[in-house]
Every structure is written in C-alpha cells, then in structure tokens.
Amino acid sequence: MAHRGRRTSPPEGERPRFRPPAADDLRHPEANPYLDAHREWSPEVVPADVAHTFHGRWEAAFGRSAPLHVEIGSGNGFFLAGTCAAHPEWNVLGVEIRYKRAVLCARKLRAAGLTNGRIARYDAFYLDDLFTDGAAAALYVNHPDPWPRERHAKNRLISRWFLEEAARILQSGAPLRLKSDYLPNIERLTFHLDHDDDGEPAPRLPFDVTGRADDVTTGPAPWPDDIETNYQSKFRKRGLPVYAVALART
Ligand SMILES: C[S@@+](CC[C@H](N)C(=O)[O-])C[C@H]1O[C@@H](n2cnc3c(N)ncnc32)[C@H](O)[C@@H]1O
C-alpha cells in the first residue's frame, strides 16, 4: 500500500529526495526576494542544498555537540527562539519550507543572540534526507497545516508515515509533542499509532501516549514550561482552544 502522505519521487533510497527547483527556475518579475535573502542568513538559515549534507552530523551545523531538538514548521520562529533561550544546553533545529519564514526565524535567533538555533529551509516530507536513526532527542510540531478536505489528505503531515519517521528518528524515551487548534490532527496522531493512512489496522508503533490537554491557552500543557507559538497566541486572543498531545518513543 502506497503511503498517501509521503511524497514518492524520486525513489526511496536516493538522497536527497527533496529536490526544489533551482533558484533560477523560480525567477520571474515578482520573484520572491527571500529566495536570495535566505542565503544571507547563514549560519542560522541552512538552505536546502546544504541541509541534507548535515545528515548524520548536525553537530557540525551548530559547531558543537548537544542533544538535537527538532521543530517541524517553525513559522515565524517564536517557539524556536523561545526553546533556544530556555535551553541553551540543546541544539534546536527548525525545519521550515517557506523562504521568508526561515529568514524570520533567523532574525529572531540573531536578535536575541541565540547561537544554539538553526532553521533548515526544507520540506518536512523528506525528513529521511536530514536525519539518521535516533538522531533527535525530541520532535515538536505546532499547528501543522490542517488540510481538512479528503482530496488534500496527501498533504497532511500528521499521518502514519510521519509517525513511522518520528519513531525512526527519535531516541528511546524521547518526546513527540503536538499542539494544534484543529482537533482532528490531535486525534490522528494517536489513531495512526495503530492504523495506516487508509484507516486500516496496522502494527502498533513504538510510542506511549503520555499526556493530552483540551486547551493549553487556559490550562496546563501535558509537559512543563510550554512555549507559546505565534498561532497559539492568535487562538488564545480569539478565545479559541489549542489542543495538545504528548507521545514518548518507547
Ligand atoms: C500554520 S503554520 C504554524 C507556524 C508555527 N508552528 C506556529 O505555531 O505559529 C504552519 C507552518 O508549517 C510550514 N510548513 C508547511 N508545510 C511544510 C513542510 N512540508 N515542510 C516544512 N514546513 C512546512 C508552513 O510554512 C508554516 O510556517
């Protein structure tokens, strides 16, 4: 059974699998100015053509060896920078597909003088390009795009293939934490522990569910010292709930 969410070309086993068009191919009169600008934010921004070269050696991107904490879809970088500030003993890597947002993340890190954060401009559907087995001490996903329509299901990050990748990448005992304003995403994370992307029963993946919260904007998160993200603050200000679920790699 093909994985509905995992992007299938080029073939598995060939790396890097994420092959963005060359910058020159993207140029037109209204070209995204961040296409060039994101390269000027080294070392905080790690462009796609460099990021995969750190497969198995992310300590080289940080200039030091430390536990690697990974956030998927860092957006404007509030969580990334907040986590770096709260944990100078960690190397914190964001993975963000949009050029501008990668730059915004880098700006936040640099403005705060944080040297333990990096943002890879990369497609999170190709985590196998970036991480060896057991590379990460934690994975965080905050407000992933919901893609509610069934015909867009292949775009959803929260899926069986993502959990399989998380199980491969995370060290034993490491947390996988998800916050979302979109309840189906929270439910999918636990559903796909023992169901495939077509909803059929599948072998149980090696995670325990360690906590859940129905609203982290008004109550505690299922982990200590929650760091608010940009989207999270928007939902809090509108009086809307943000759900959370925590897993641990067994
Ligand atoms: C709804 S926003 C949430 C941003 C941030 N995490 C927050 O909570 O404020 C989703 C983010 O995921 C990024 N994203 C979407 N698909 C992605 C992919 N395939 N790989 C990496 N980042 C992705 C988007 O560009 C966007 O910044």
CATH structural architecture = 3-Layer(aba) Sandwich
Give the names of the bound compounds. S-adenosylmethionine
Proportion of beta-strand residues: 15-25%
Spatial gap, N to C terminus: 26 Å
Helices and strands: which structural class? alpha/beta
What does the largest sheet look like? 8 strands, mixed
What is the element layout, followed by pairings?
Blueprint: H1 34-37, E1 45-46, H2 48-51, H3 58-62, E2 68-72, H4 78-86, E3 91-96, H5 99-111, E4 117-121, H6 127-130, E5 138-142, H7 160-169, E6 175-180, H8 183-191, E7 207-213, H9 230-237, E8 243-249
Bound molecules: S-adenosylmethionine (SAM).
Describe this structure in words.
The chain has 250 residues and is of the alpha/beta class. The chain has a single domain, classed as 3-Layer(aba) Sandwich (Rossmann fold), CATH 3.40.50.150. It is 26% helix and 17% strand. It has helices at 34-37, 48-51, 58-62, 78-86, 99-111, 127-130, 160-169, 183-191, 230-237; strands at 45-46, 68-72, 91-96, 117-121, 138-142, 175-180, 207-213, 243-249. The chain has an eight-stranded mixed sheet, with helices on both faces. Helix 4 (78-86) links the parallel strand 2 and strand 3. The longest helix has 13 residues, at 99-111. The protein starts with 33 loop residues before the first helix and ends with a strand. S-adenosylmethionine (SAM) binds next to strand 3 and helix 9. S-adenosylmethionine is lined by residues 73-75, 95-98, 101, 123-125, 142-143, 145, 229-232.
